[in-house]
Amino acid sequence: MAHLLTLTDLSLAEITSLLDEAEEFSEGKYWRAPELFFVANLFFEPSTRTKCSFEVAERKLGLQVIPFDADMSSVQKGETLYDTIRTLESIGVGAVVVRHPEDQYFEALRDSIAIPIINAGDGCGHHPTQSLLDLMTIRQEFGAFRGLTVAIVGDIRHSRVARSNAEVLTRLGATVLFASPDEWKDDTNQYGTYVDLDEAVQEADVIMLLRIQHERHEEKMGLARKQYHERYGLTVERAKRMKDRSIILHPAPVNRDVEIASCLVECMQSRIFKQMENGVYIRMAVLKRAVERGMENGNHLKKWQVVQ
Amino acid sequence: MAHLLTLTDLSLAEITSLLDEAEEFSEGKYWRAPELFFVANLFFEPSTRTKCSFEVAERKLGLQVIPFDADMSSVQKGETLYDTIRTLESIGVGAVVVRHPEDQYFEALRDSIAIPIINAGDGCGHHPTQSLLDLMTIRQEFGAFRGLTVAIVGDIRHSRVARSNAEVLTRLGATVLFASPDEWKDDTNQYGTYVDLDEAVQEADVIMLLRIQHERHEEKMGLARKQYHERYGLTVERAKRMKDRSIILHPAPVNRDVEIASCLVECMQSRIFKQMENGVYIRMAVLKRAVERGMENGNHLKKWQVVQ
Amino acid sequence: MAHLLTLTDLSLAEITSLLDEAEEFSEGKYWRAPELFFVANLFFEPSTRTKCSFEVAERKLGLQVIPFDADMSSVQKGETLYDTIRTLESIGVGAVVVRHPEDQYFEALRDSIAIPIINAGDGCGHHPTQSLLDLMTIRQEFGAFRGLTVAIVGDIRHSRVARSNAEVLTRLGATVLFASPDEWKDDTNQYGTYVDLDEAVQEADVIMLLRIQHERHEEKMGLARKQYHERYGLTVERAKRMKDRSIILHPAPVNRDVEIASCLVECMQSRIFKQMENGVYIRMAVLKRAVERGMENGNHLKKWQVVQ
């Protein structure tokens, strides 16, 4: 399949291959699409970093990026996502990157759209390039995943990152711990064990903080920022009890002094901005895969019949 | 004139020449602007397909596209369209593509703006590149226009497509039929004969469906979608009575199961996505014309006097 | 310092060097960034001309422009400007252009952001590229600044242009006159002498009109447009009393028949559109400086520690 919708769709071999290729891109590997290849980034939710990261990756591969403004689009006129993407395909776009607020928006498209779809986040569902960049950052530190303990901390229930990462880290042989307020526990996610935050911080090799998505979940925690930080955040005090070689990850944007003390964002153990850098290399690898597979599918533009 | 504002401005020879050039682009013809040439797409109304189609065409010709966000522009500060375009001209933009909600917005600009303006839709007025891509799609099927019967179906009164196409198809020797609810008939359009929808479907070589522009016209039809579809839409039942070689066109975005049964959108007789593909080639031809004429006008940037 | 935040930060030698380079660009000088260099334009306020002008300048230098939509950005999620720019830096952006409604937004960034920041306007504060293009336009006419009389007319208090220009013109040896309604006088600006508008018009070599920023200042003048024009605008009558070689500048967008009679906008003495053209060359010079200094800083992406 040319799409990249969830990491669950990928074998460990495919995941490793994407990580290897991303690593090569981080070391300066040069690869360019062999012809004028158009992509469009369809972002139906705000996101600076993911959209810009894809844009940089696309330009580095020499792709032509067609601007797509979801606010100005015909989706405003009630057009389905299928029709929007088929339209883009018809005008010559060879792959699309989609961020959409609806969980699994892509199930209606998986078998009906011929050009590769790269999922850049679906509702509370998946975010495969974020997971891959987390994996890349972890592998750069520790060389492998087997035997590592990864604590995922925060709003487990509404997090795409928690969902994607717990599954793939377990598959890769890591042990996953969850630390979360009761309201945000996720009984449907079987890939981690809930522990106390202080225990998680002390045992983990990787502390993966989640963003409090004020703009997404509807329940209110009823806690002031400061209270939340004390109870469920990575405070300076807690950070002192981390293991020596442990690292801190966060998908960003960070709510400073909520999920993490502001002064820890760029501390020695933080890889938060390193994750962003790695995101570009991951997206280059994922886009290269899409371009190559999209071109194998080939000539999709020739399929309309012309009566002679 | 370097502008392309309405098809009425063009002779049949000019129209044929644009169609021929678009056909060559569809077959892979390569043409590039001979120097760094800037264009801007000024869309004061939402439109995925037209804007993206122009973008792809522009990139294929090697043009530099300057992003222009109408929402963020100085038009918000009360600036006239003339001043906006003169500004773009001053900073080096060599041609503009304009979509605007006001009918004939371009009359105030026609003689005062030196760089080519390509009209990408004015209110309920004209949409010349849409008409040209319709003509291209028809000519690909039938080789010529004389003797063809083209039925234009739906909201005749508010449609740019009905207006532009009826006039040019009549000029090209085709017979135009209109089928429309009474509320949407257009007494000012003399280029077609009103007939019953069922008659139109059976007689036409080309069934050109119009979009119900919920966002544009103010009158309500007072019909549920399903009722409208039964009375005025291309149902599966009606489609069975089409002539064997007849084709279906629609300017899109389609309201599925309103103007046309959803299952017909990609049926054998539909050229809806083919139209979109052709739109890119038409826009390449139109842009090439603008670039060539814009460069003949030349050196417009040198016209400010510098006192020595 | 690689940033360009205010003209006050620059020595006269640096200013002259930027003007000289811009002049060379206006004469066709070719300079390209030596490698794939990414920039982003962060516009948190509407502005057609400044944003498009930077875009054209960036493309002319072969820079890769990463689209950034402030409305869709994580700033909507409460992210700080520091984190936004650090994010862009992390994904490989080498310089940013920022327009922001807050005065001196850049003070929090000046020492903490490694990549060059080009200030494209801060609140009622500074707008250095606008000032430079004004200087360039004046120097093209008169060859030098010493001995010139420059009248700045209009809303002195809320104008970035008045603030930047009065200081730098005084430093360059020009005499600055202000003409303004009482409500808009600025006691904190010591670089000009308030005179009557009619006196200003007759004495000035350069009449620099300011925009009435309806969207910015909160006080209302309580005058109809026509009244304002008669009392404080450049009317046809007043223009007749200008000196022979005097010129008219305006930062645009122009409120026609308010600050200036509509028929004067493109008159022989107006350099309003010439200013816009010069803006592109100024921005090319400023961007070239940023690229060169940004590359000297070098390898900022390598600063995250990877524990081996």
Architecture overview:
The structure is a homotrimer of 308-residue chains. By secondary structure, the first copy, chain A, is α/β, with parallel strands linked by helices. Chain A folds into two domains: 12-127 and 276-297, 3-Layer(aba) Sandwich (Rossmann fold), CATH 3.40.50; 128-272, 3-Layer(aba) Sandwich (Rossmann fold). The first copy, chain A, is 36% helix and 14% strand. The first copy, chain A, contains nine helices and nine strands. In chain A, the strands form two sheets. Chain A has a five-stranded parallel β-sheet, with helices on both faces. In chain A, helix 5 (160-171) links the parallel strand 5 and strand 6 (175-179). In chain A, helix 1 (12-26) packs across helix 4 and helix 2 (48-60) packs across helix 9 (272-297). Chains in contact: A-B, A-C, B-C. Chain A binds chain C through residues 43, 46-49, 51-53, 55-56, 59-60, 67, 69, 71, 140-141, 214-215, 245, 247, 252-256, 265, 268, 271, 273-274, 276-277, 279-280, and chain C through 36, 38, 40, 64, 66-69, 71-80, 83-84, 86-93, 301, 304-307. Chains A, B, C: Heterododecamer (2C3:3R2) of six catalytic PyrB chains organized as two trimers (C3), and six regulatory PyrI chains organized as three dimers (R2). Chains A, B, C: It is an enzyme of class 2 (transferase). Chains A, B, C: Pathway: Pyrimidine metabolism; UMP biosynthesis via de novo pathway; (S)-dihydroorotate from bicarbonate: step 2/3.
